[in-house]
Amino acid sequence: KGDWMNQLELNTMNTDETSQFAERLASFLKAGDVIALEGDLGAGKTTFTKGLAKGLEIKKTVNSPTFTIIKEYKGKLPLYHMDVYRVADAFEDLGFEEYFEGDGVTVVEWAHLIEEQLPHERLTIFLYRGEGDTRKMVLSPMGERYEQLCKEIFR
Ligand code: ADP
Ligand code: MG
After folding, report:
1. How far is the CA of 109 from the centre of ligand 2 (A)?
2. d(CA 26, CA 123)
3. What is any Pfam family matched here (predicted)?
């Protein structure tokens, strides 16, 4: 455990700051990366995804995919945006694996709801509402790839 372990928490003061952090994160991502987003309704998961999409040079507007579960966007890398809030059965096979192992970046809102289907190695980001427009983000890397990624982001 290096010093970076202390730096996995960061606070944002407004929507733009959350978006900007995600945009920066995007510049470190590569095909096959999986980002799991956790946090209550309104915590900023979709806002984060929009920023990430901007970083991937996606031109289309990214909206909450609640009713479609999976949306695909073309960018510098493809983005697979999932919101699994309405997945009725945690084990239902909606072909997630193909996305996780695909040639894009996957972002999963409410990821724990399909925990059993997630790749073990992933970057989980917890978002918490603070006072007003403040948010706390806690990054939890699982596996070597994501530990390295976190080191790079905070360097
Ligand atoms: P979720 O997808 O987690 O339900 P959304 O991103 O859809 O959350 O909504 C977050 C809402 O909170 C948006 O209206 C956004 O503008 C607002 N907001 C205010 N401050 C922040 C912040 N610091 N980070 C992210 N969103 C924020
Ligand atoms: Mg959302």
Report:
1. 6
2. 12
3. TsaE
